[in-house]
Amino acid sequence: MQFHFWRTILLALLTIVVPAFSMAQLPSPPDKVGRETSPAKTDEIAAQHEGGYILLAPLGSNDVNVMDRQGKTKFQWPGERRPGNSVYLLDDGSLLKTGSLGRRGPHGFDAGGAGGVVEKISISGEVVWRLDWVSEKHLQHHDIEPLPNGNLLLIAWERKTREECLAIGRHESLLPEGELWVDAILEIKPTGNSGGEVVWRWSAWDHLVQDLDPKKPNHGSPSKYPEKADINHVSLRSRLLGKADWMHTNSVDYNAELDQIILSVHGFDEVWIIDHSTSGAENPGILWRWGNPQAYCHGSDADQELFKQHDAQWIQKGRPGEDNILIFNNGQGRAGNYSTVLEIKSPLEKDGTYRRQASGAFEEAQQIWKYGERGQFFSPNISGAERLPGGNTLICSGANGTIFEVTPEGEQVWKHNNEIGGGPDGAGRRGGGGRGGALFRAPWIPPTHAILKEMKSKEKKPETETPQKGTAL
Prior knowledge:
Layout: H1 2-21, E1 42-43, E2 53-56, E3 64-67, E4 73-77, E5 87-89, E6 95-100, E7 116-121, E8 127-132, E9 138-146, E10 152-161, H2 162-168, E11 179-190, E12 196-203, E13 208-209, E14 229-230, E15 249-255, E16 260-265, E17 270-275, E18 286-290, E19 310-314, E20 325-329, E21 340-345, E22 366-371, E23 384-387, E24 393-397, E25 402-406, E26 412-417, E27 444-445, H3 451-457
Parallel strand pairs: 13-14
Antiparallel strand pairs: 1-26, 2-3, 2-27, 3-4, 5-6, 6-7, 7-8, 9-10, 10-11, 11-12, 15-16, 16-17, 17-18, 19-20, 20-21, 21-22, 23-24, 24-25, 25-26
């Protein structure tokens, strides 16, 4: 296969180039991360937005805020640390918040999205439960997902040594930092006021394939095993090229009806769906993957659809497009560097499996809806989108701290530029502490939520903060 030939040449070149250049990062995206036309805080372009409130947790702020559609803070949970990165408002009005243990990350886990702490905080601001998922071997990062049974899913880096990676078939030129962080998905059952029990686990480390050494485990062609992750896959468009943060999984979402989980795997430019009903040797690995078939030696550059995407999620029941998948496609590395929001339909069968092509590759997704075109808006990292009950879509262009709502026809009907935690240069500027107003996401809060009663009795005005230093995203 032509792709396989060029992949072999690439590995040979990396053997020479990596030591010489110490795997220098690709150039950072330009300072201008969006085409904003004015510094206005909130703009109700038409009386068509769907109301409700917005949950704001700026990456440069310790506090979490409930904001109304006029841009006013109506409620606030003061905090001790920045998010790391996601926050969720639960049905009872309590907050489930990840927490960062420092920009550089503890124990050398110094990549964007580093967390380590998960807290449940009551409406009154009391921390009623806390989990510390941090050690020299692992660290929680980016996202969590509250489950219907009261447990939660979290994403964790798990450190693998150089020796472990070589033994499993990783090419030595792809270990410039002497280690690899492999992502695992854990289900945690909270215990008491702190800690939790791991009741389910999935790791890419248990579902690998390599085609370099027939004497090592999991030998085979990645094209023949699309349900496995190629241990030697690298993304040439990524600033993480060759870094220990191999997968950089940045979102996790759960579908209770299917008992399946969808992951946004940034390092592969793909979304993966995995089974939650099995674990260990019984788990089939990747049930379906989409976005970049070259990640398992199929297709070409022309077939790549996702570029450093975030926030892959099933559209909620009862909302237009229910059970379809919504993705914020950042577009980092795509010609023109522009972002889009995609609604897709997966090739799901009635038995919960996914169709494959005659070649063995997974069948492609069907695009149902798309917002964004070249030159319209761009957020190189973070960000998210959510389908609202009336059919509009709320979009968070996170790197520049901009939230806007669009109709199914693509008309923008509301817009807000976040200034909390952003510093004098605004959320989208680099350096000088200017990225603090950036937003991982901006979840929508319905006007019937339980938090509203408490908001009426405990409304808070925005407090002036001293901007903190920028966060690596």
